[in-house]
Design a protein that fits this description.
Helix content: 55-70%
Oligomer: single chain
Distance between the termini: 27 Å
Radius of gyration: 20 Å
Largest sheet: none
Number of helices: 4
Structural class: mainly alpha
Number of strands: 0
Keywords: Membrane, Transmembrane, Transmembrane helix
Strand content: under 5%
Order of helices and strands: HHHH
């Protein structure tokens, strides 16, 4: 007898891609990852547009400006998405996990 037969029918989650999106924890993390992505785009654009600490001048005078821009963007992406997802998990009521 497979272990999935022990789960009541109302608690079963479909397998595959459709089943992943039915999982509320996955949806919570995906939504907050998107919030982190938007925050990353805003912060990244703000840093370059305002030329904070001469950052845009430094990047544009680089031999290949795509490398420092990619490093800055993906560093911010990892940081801000992690913060958004961690904050969402920590704000869950105690019995929801």
């Amino acid at each position: 007898m497979p272990i999935t037969d022990l789960v009541p029918p109302e608690r079963r989650i479909e397998q595959g891609a459709k089943g992943v999106f039915q999982n509320p924890l996955f949806r919570l993390l995906a939504i907050n990852w998107l919030i982190g992505l938007v925050a990353t785009i805003v912060v990244f654009s703000g840093l370059l547009i305002t030329n904070a600490a001469g950052l845009y001048d430094l990047i544009s005078s680089s031999e290949n400006p795509l490398i420092p821009m990619a490093l800055l963007f993906f560093g911010l992406l990892i940081t801000l998405c992690s913060v958004a997802m961690a904050a969402a998990i920590m704000m869950l009521p105690k019995g929801d996990l």
